[in-house]
Specification:
The protein is an alpha+beta fold and about 150 residues long. It is about 15% helix and about 40% strand. The protein binds zinc ion (ZN) (2 copies).
Length: about 150
Amino acid sequence: MNFEINKLLQEKIIPFEFVVKNTDLNDIEGELDEHGALVCGTIEKLSKGNFLVTFTIEMTMIFPCARCLEPTPIDCLYDYTDTVTVEDDEAILDLLPVVEECIYINEPFRVLCSEDCAGLCPKCGNNLNHEQCECDKFGDYDPRFEALKNLL
Ligand SMILES: [Zn+2]
Ligand SMILES: [Zn+2]
């Protein structure tokens, strides 16, 4: 993920390919699966200190389902193109922050394990996709009010 600026200045376009692991990333919601993210692209020298960075990221990310919290894998393919400016005194161009930004701005806001996920029981927390709990049968039963009902 690190490129020596000196070497970059000698070439017009440099192709690259590297894998980012989940442990390399801090600011994203999802979690990469064990294969990590494959980042494939080029760095092109535009002018002194300015590089055009273009890449695609291919990966499987795991998000908790928004309704039942079940870990849900999502296949992601993101494109990124931007100009990266490097200060005079920097010797290394590190693409990891750029990769992280690309994932951060693209990752899905709300993931469902399936369109018709039944979610969790609001009373007992049971996952209703796997089994029905008894809570429904009692309607709005709440043990805290049972004593009051007996008084009526
Ligand atoms: Zn779900
Ligand atoms: Zn329940």
